[in-house]
Amino acid sequence: MRRIYILFVLFFISLHSLHARELPGASIFSSHVFIGGGFGMGFGSVTYIEVAPLIGYQITERLSGGVSLLYRYKNDKRLIPDLKTSDYGVSAFGRYLVHRPFVLHAEYEYLSYEFVNADLSTTRTGFNSFLGGGGITQPIGERAALFVLGLYNFTYSSTAVNTPYNDPWVFRVGITYGF
User: What is the pLDDT of residues 59-69, one digit of tens each?
Assistant: First the structure.
């Protein structure tokens, strides 16, 4: 868990230094860079926390791409003893602005997923997912935008056991900020 926090701190420090650097052409480059991500949580008999920072680059006025990190923590208090699991991963994505505010989104995700066995022990395994779909991106300021995406997981299998997704549909909401 400590490694994940260190990774996030280094990620945001590198973004700050990238923006603050005063090299010839840096202002052109940094004007196309955007950061953001999503955050989710739930509390009760199951505590759920998810953090997903992202960094991207606007290639053209309509096309952008980037990478995102993911960390997900779950504590299920319905089981004795409490069962704690965590997932982490990385994804690469591309977005195409069809007509404001509508976007098409494609993504490859690798997730290290920790699942619960019948004897309440946990096992970690890796999952590859290819997601595609669309959504909207709505400006909420001069340089910030809200995005809402509905993605279909093309690698989802309803017969697979111990998968990170219970459904082929994945919904994402987040904020981006451009320099």
Answer: 999 999 999 99
